[in-house]
Amino acid sequence: MKEITLAICLLFCQLAYAQQKPNIVIIVSDDHAYQAISAYGSKLVKTPNIDRIAKAGVTFKRAYVTNSICGPSRAVILTGKYSHKNGFKDNVSADFDHSQDNFAKHLQGGGYQTAWIGKLHLGSKPQGFDRMNPAQRAKFDAYYNPIEADLKTRNLSGKALIEWKYQRYMKDYLSTAASLDRNIGRTLDYLEKNHLTENTIVIYMSDQGFYMGEHGWFDKRFMYEESFRTPMVMSYPGVIKPGSQSEAFVMNLDIAPTLLDAAKLKIPEGMQGKSMLPLFQSGIEVFRDAMFYHYYENGEHSVSPHFGIRTERYKLIRFYKRVDAWELYDLKKDGSEEHNLYGEKGYQPIVTELKSRLKALIDKYEDQEAKDIMATGAG
């Protein structure tokens, strides 16, 4: 069983200039589906404290990730760079290079104290943090080892085993979401009690989305909406109007530049995301008109590596290695992405346009592997 873990809680408490620069609290959970958050309309579970952040600020209705898998998503959040740029493409092939630039190092240089509390999933010896406190595997094992032992004594098979797994999974998943929400409430209560709320940015998000049975799946990885999209709510008193709803295409790639912008620090040229603050300061109409995605891991769960583009209406996906294929979805007509239109009559002009836009994004983000694949005859 996989639990939602309170993966990152970065609390940046500035010692001086409190009125000029905000404190920053980021809470990143593991595998928390937007379908399991009441601020996103969930009927499965109530999350009143995540909803508190949303009511105090903005709910991003269309927040996405660049690579829907745990470690790489955290690497993108830290660096503001796609996986092929920060070097951490999957969970199995290599450790993250902590010597590279990340936004926490810049916050340290700007007078912030920094801390990473919880799941790291990026190898050892992180840099840019004054305090570290990893996730505690022992507590997880203490809870689940007796459950696993009980399952073995039941000797279930077939439909009975499937039903047991699904019920156990969903009960634990939703219970953990509720527990996570209670602890977010403790954090918000602390800020209020110590009169910190008015000068503190609070962001809650997941490292990616998650399947709650859609397409008959669990887990993440694919570029389909349930895993490509991630929940994200953000409060910033005096900057973000309470109760806001944003339809902008934002990504985990944008977290690092946003926080550096809020801290009035220079955003490094190498960061590929961009600050989200102009969304609330200038009322811009289009923040990003298309998004690029690239998933690399070619092992666990038998998910084929793939990359693609999502626009306002369409999604074009290029699978390679395990599967050599294209998929096209009209999200206006087929929001659940069940009907692959690639190769169907009448869609060739759309495919041609999307491939051209996809190539432009690949060039923009300097993804050589995707560029090479697109350069083949099949691309």
Can you tag this structure with a few keywords?
379 residues; alpha/beta; Alkaline Phosphatase, subunit A; Arylsulfatase, C-terminal domain; 7-stranded mixed beta sheet
Mean pLDDT figure: 91
Number of helices: 11
**Sheet of most strands:** 7 strands, mixed
Sheet/helix structural class: alpha/beta
Uncertain stretches of 5 or more adjacent residues: 1-19
Distance between the termini: 38 Å
CATH superfamily of the largest domain: Alkaline Phosphatase, subunit A
Structure description:
This protein is 33% helix and 18% strand. The protein is an alpha/beta fold and 379 residues long. It folds into 2 domains: 6-286, Alkaline Phosphatase, subunit A (3-Layer(aba) Sandwich), CATH 3.40.720.10; 304-375, Arylsulfatase, C-terminal domain. It has a 7-stranded mixed β-sheet, with helices on both faces. Helix 1 packs across helix 6 (158-193) and helix 4 (103-109) runs parallel beside helix 8. The chain starts with 5 loop residues before the first strand and ends with a helix. The model is unreliable at 1-19 (pLDDT under 50).
